[in-house]
Design a protein that fits this description.
17% strand, three-stranded mixed beta sheet, 449 residues, binds N~2~-(3-carboxypropanoyl)-L-arginine, 17 helices, single chain
Amino acid sequence: MKSFEVNFDGLVGPTHNYAGLSEGNVASVSNAKNSSNPKEAALQGLKKMKALSDMGLQQGVFAPQERPDIYALKRLGFQGSDAQILEAAYKASPALLAACCSASSMWTANAATVSPSADTANNKVHFTAANLANKFHRSLEPETTSNILKAMFSDTTHFEHHQHLNDNEHMGDEGAANHTRLCESYGDAGVEIFTFGRYGFNRNMPAPQKYPARQTLEASQAVARLHGLTDDNAIFVQQNPDVIDQGVFHNDVIGVGNQNVLFYHEQAYLNTAAFKAEVTQKFQTASNSNDLFFLEVPTNEVPIKDAVNTYLFNTQIVTLADGSMTIIAPMHCRENDNVHAYLQSLTAANNPINHVNYFDVNESMKNGGGPACLRLRVALTQQELQAVNPACLLTDSLYNQLVGWVNKNYRDSLALNDLRDPQLLLESRSALDELSQILALGSVYRFQQ
Ligand code: SUG
């Protein structure tokens, strides 16, 4: 049966800003308090979506969340009209207000973990929204994420949704940013690789010393259980704590898989040899094939610092209609000599990747979000694809409509001081109200309920 990988890209929200909220994420911290350009950010994201769609790939759109999050501020004791709440929160703590205004839901790789039907016990596609418990601003996302996922994948004969894991760091879960899948074609049974940063219940095991590890083994195991995976098709591997301490806050900053290719840095994992042996054995069992490529990038060609600064591994590897693979990379990869030279040698070598397309997603990169952070991958059969809310699948006409929507509703500059402007709240709500109609989502936002 025909199968697809659909990328659901996060549409950047109207409050996109640089607040330095993510300790351990080098770009977020170093761009803190710079002015952002929400309009440009959203248009850059849409251009990437359109380009992938023009390559013949299936492309989806994932709606942003309502920000400022007035309900979060009310829960924390701020009272009065919306304008009074914004002003009081700003006076009490500009950082708290900024956290409640973050457009971080744009990085949909962190929205959820998705297991395709070929891997799961009941042959449905399973979704677990990520709790994002490690960062306050991101912990505000899971409920609306679930609402949006259910509005896009509503057909219960094909899709099953699970509540996000307990909102606690023991169960810290960052979704698909720490999950990748290897398979022959997308509709075939594959192996799912869950990468964790630390143990939730055992403090004596290896863990980073400087920066937080956001994903625990226990969270990854819970997601695999919920999705009905087995010992034969799930792999749990620990990320190298040393690279987390160098700014690799999610595994998708240091490794990515597509079909029978795993592209990763030699320092990405703890105990790489054992990991490769397990992947080889389970891939063979699941797919009945030995046709697997481990593309391991050595430190002497690309040091960790270059990987973190350019997001070489936060690239999307996509398969085109002729079966060849292309890398969707940020411009930073072309501008860095080591990384550019590496990519040139990669595409010339004997492996399925033979082209690189560079994109300007700089507004997102400045907050530590590369091309792969901006998308949630959902592998679907033809029948499942037909069951997806069609208004969320990109067409030329939807693209044009969304560009018009952004141009009409978004500001072209936003500084932290603007976040308390009650007009921004009104603009944002009115834009999202319109968007939820364009994408036929129903009332997914609290202000609509
Ligand atoms: O969670 N940045 C996001 C970036 C997420 C990248 N996603 C993946 N690697 N999949 C984060 O750290 C910064 C927001 C700010 O500082 O304003 C932020 O949330």
